[in-house]
Amino acid sequence: MGNSFILRIALAVIFIMHSMPGVFNNGVNDFGNLYLNTIGFAPFGVLIAWLIKLSHVATAILLLLNKYIKPVSIITILILIIGIFMVHLPDGWYVVGGGRNGVEFNFLLIAAFLTLMYPDGFKIKKN
Questions:
Q1: SS3 call for 60
Q2: Are the C-beta atoms of 75 and 116 separated by less than 8 Å?
Q3: Which uninterrupted H or E stretch holds 104?
Q4: Alpha carbons 9 and 103: distance in angstroms, whole number
């Protein structure tokens, strides 16, 4: 399991809890229809929303299985970065407290996935 077990479990729980309610309460379709389609992704907004949500579920499963960590991390980081610019950045930094719906949580998730990808940090080669 390695040193990443606790981090992988925490991320898996976050991504399952972020994904599953929208699957059952029409949130995924609403995000696709009421947001993505209205900002220029029509008629593909719902498809994109479902692909994002299914990628989150796959991410959680693969984290639990400790499989394909680098590829799933790269895909998830890209989705999180796009989410920062499309959804969260207009609301600023803070998720709560000094604001609402900001980028700080996505920033932390990106750092967590980078930690999984590079558990020993980034190595700078010396000549």
A1: helix
A2: no
A3: helix 104-117
A4: 22
Long-range CB pairs of 48-53, under 8 A, 24+ apart, other chains included: 52/79, 53/19, 53/22, 53/23, 53/28
Threshold 0.85, pTM exceeds: yes
Q: What is the pLDDT of residues 28-49, one digit of tens each?
A: 999 999 999 999 999 999 999 9
The per-residue pLDDT for range 45-74, each reduced to its tens digit, is 999 999 999 999 999 999 999 999 999 999
C-beta of residue 57 within 8 angstroms of C-beta of residue 28: no
Distance CA 67, CA 80 (A): 20
In the block, tokens 């929303």 appear at 49
Token pair recorded at residue 50: 């479902």
